Amino acid sequence: MNQIVHINDVSKSFVTERGLAVSALEKANLEIYRGEFVCIVGPSGCGKSTLLRIISGLERSDTGQTTYNDRRLEQPHRDVGMVFQEYSVLPWRTVLDNVCLGLEFLREKKATRVEIAMHYLGLVGMARFAEAFPYELSGGMRQRVAIARALATDPQVLLMDEPFGALDAHTRILMQKELLRIWRETQKTVILVTHSVDEAVYLADRIVVMTARPGKIREVIDVGLEHPRDRSNPKYARMTARILDTLEEEVVAAGEF
Amino acid sequence: MHNHYHRVLSLATVLAFLALWSWAAMVVGNKVILPTVSEVADLLSRPTEDLLSMGSLLTNITVSLLRVLLGYMVAVIIAIPLGVAMGYYSAVHTMFGDFLNLFRPIPPLAWVPLVMAWFGIASLADLFGVDRGLWFIYLNNFKYSMVFIIFIGAFYPVLTSSIHGVRNVNRVFIDTARVLGAGEFDIFRKILLPAALPSMVNGMRIGLGVAWMCLVSAEMLPGSISGVGYLITHAYTMASTDIVVAGMFTIGLTGAIMDWLFRRIERRCFSWQRLAR
Predict the structure, then answer these.
(1) Which residues of A make CB contacts under 8 Å with B?
(2) How many domains does chain B have?
(3) What's the domain range around A129?
């Protein structure tokens, strides 16, 4: 498999409002391969979102570098899309116009925009809500729109920062299934940050487990289970339990609970 | 049914006020101190009739309205871009923030002496170099001094709400646009402006209210020869209190109608904001 994103010795620290320097990420190294589904899990505040923001080009690392197809990522790149945890669907735009947003920035013609947007709305099962406003939609539907919007500009890599974090448990499981289907159909490379170990084990080809602050990559686990995964499979349960134990260890060691 | 009940309630307050006024006018029995309801209503029912050879209520209110709109427009045109820039770029906020806050507490009326010294009775007629004829009469109504006072009054509410509107734009909207490849201008036009618009329009509504209130003081300035504010002050010196009250009522009604129009626009255009909660 060929490498698509390479994270090399990436560190990042922040200065808090009280003037304290906090190291969010320390010497992270990671290779992502084309078409794979990678989940990043870790204790809260371990810098997993920071890592994602660095890959997206929204933030710069202090040291080290991130490359996409061997080219440095220093600002948002057309081939790297992102779905956020919070509802990022613009409330003043209809569903269709939301999905068109990125295409507008790319200066696509109106007819082309609508055609592409409708295709992706169809893919996420939201075509019949094209003219609806976000306030008319449920949380799960809004995230479907956000996914369609991120896909509309046809990025190769889709970054997802706790995309289902705000959803209720049931909707969340349905959305995970949907995401796997969309991933298979579009063959994108997905990097998804989550605090749910179950979600990671359910979705990922590989799981990146991070340490407590300052965030380092502790281990990378090959899940090696066939899709669709069965939550009652003993292997599934063992893997979930092992990762949870690791995370507990991290949190206890950091004394942050 | 419910709506009907509300209408009756709000009408009841107005009727009670009119009754109290009628009773007080009867007790006072001096129309210079307190004119009767019917005297004022009589004046209001003939809005096109010339009063004290200063023009009719309608002409004066039109002149006032145009003045307010002129000063108001200048304020909006300057305050909105400045407010957006101050809300978005912290450097711009640092540059102008303290400076503008220094002037904010000064009541518009306190500017009058200075403004008179600057502009005297210069008006738009001077700007366009017209010194006689019908156009002179029209343009001479728009004194720089008045426009300036109205400008000061309307400027701050619009500025503050623009800054506030832009600052409160959800960061995730801006990040979303960035990742999708938006340039600075794209972000301004497709994210900041629409997201901050409800707050801006709210500020514009408040600003218009303040501008309208600044009008009376602006029209009391020397050199003013028309406008409702002038009509009121002049009527006062002539002891025509009924005209004073009729003028006041006209100001109130016009202001209320403008406010109502703005609210209508807000409800129509920004339903997404109300319903998004």
Answers:
(1) 56-58, 76, 78, 80-82, 84, 86-88, 90-93, 101-102, 104-106, 133-135, 149-150, 153
(2) 2
(3) 87-154
